[in-house]
Structures are given as C-alpha cells and as structure tokens.
C-alpha cells in the first residue's frame, strides 16, 4: 500500500476522484480513504494545515496501514525566477525553517538528535526525476523544501528564511513534519508540491487564484509516480 497525504481538500480531491473501490476509515478525527489508484492500493488522507496535523496524520497512517512509502502532495510558494505558477518542486532535501536551536551549536533548522536536513528515499527521487524529464504535462525541478507554521506573505519573513537557507526552492507548512515522522519511523517518503504563489506580499491572492492548478499538477505527478511504483527500488530493498 502507498500512502498519500495532503493538507487541504483541494489537494486530495483529484486523487479521490480517481480512486476505485473506495472505503473510508476514521481514527481520531482523521478520515483515511483506501482503494485502487492506477491499479495500486493506496490510502489517502487530508491531514489539515500545519506541522502538528501533518505529523499526527502521518503517524496514524503509518501505524494503521504500514505503507511501503508515503508521498506528500499539494501547493507551495515557489522561490526563484525560473519557477512559474504550476511548476513542480520535488524534495531533494527538506527542512524546518522555523526551528532555531543554534544557541546550542546546532545548524539552522536542526532539531537536536536529528539531521539538519531530511533526505527522501533515493529510489523515489530518481523515479520522480525521470518523470520530470520525460513528461510534457508539467515542468519541474528538484530542490530544498522548507516548512514552517506560517503562511509566507511577508517579504521580511521570506528574507529571513532565505538568509538561513539560501538554496530553498519551495515554502509550505507540512512537508518537514512528514519527512521527520517518516525518518524516525523508517518509512520512505517524497514531497511533491506545485507552485501556487511566490511566498511574497501577493501570495494570499495568488494562492487563492492558483490553488486548484497547483493541486492538480501535484496530484497528476503523484498519480504518474504511483503508476510506475512497481518498478521503483526503495532504499534497503534488493535491486
């Protein structure tokens, strides 16, 4: 089984629309949708916005369904002039941009006892990169995804994030929590997001205008990845 998590209804609605043999299971106010997507068994969750919701949802999904891997889908603020609205950012690394324990010698974004940057499964990342290279449905890059419990709409806040993490390409609110949960529980994962805004002073209106486009492109990429998931060798599996 493959796990898919999105924060908002708009971010999972296309996936639910393609689900065959759907069933629902509710645990602790979280509703899990199971069924077949592109002939592969999946479980889909709308976790709610923010890192705590994402961590709880991912933990419950892993405990209840033990997915082979987990994918986080949805919209993000895109950083860099080469990114257009609707373009994909696939996680090469993931960080908490709102964690700071540097006073005790840790790296920016690093939680004590954990890596400063979480790295997704190499097999999933390679498969997603191959999809980007061969599809004409959307454009995209791989790069650093930064997460925090703030909707980025303040240029000064964005400047602060970029000062600490100059290579960040996407800013959102759940990916690092899911990455950390998967890291600690030993589940392969990948973050796939599409650009809805620029994480700047216009981001609120841009997000509302472009959410459906970003959600559609991200969900399409997730579907494409699931379709070839039987060909992916995850880290630690025999090749």
Fold and architecture overview:
The protein is α/β, with parallel strands linked by helices and 239 residues long. The protein has one domain: Rossmann fold (3-Layer(aba) Sandwich), CATH 3.40.50. Helices cover 35% and strands 29% of the residues. It has six helices and nine strands, in the order βαβββαββαβαβαβα. It has helices at 9-18, 51-65, 122-134, 155-164, 175-185, 203-227; strands at 2-6, 20-27, 30-37, 40-46, 69-78, 88-96, 140-147, 168-172, 189-197. A five-stranded mixed beta barrel has the order 5-8-7-6-9, surrounded by four helices. Helix 3 links the parallel strand 6 and strand 7. The protein is globular and about 50 Å long. The model has no long low-confidence stretch (mean pLDDT 96). Keywords: Amino-acid biosynthesis, Hydrolase, Methionine biosynthesis. One of its GO terms (cellular component) is cytosol. Pathway: Amino-acid biosynthesis; L-methionine biosynthesis via salvage pathway; S-methyl-5-thio-alpha-D-ribose 1-phosphate from S-methyl-5'-thioadenosine (hydrolase route): step 1/2. Pfam families: PNP_UDP_1 (PF01048).
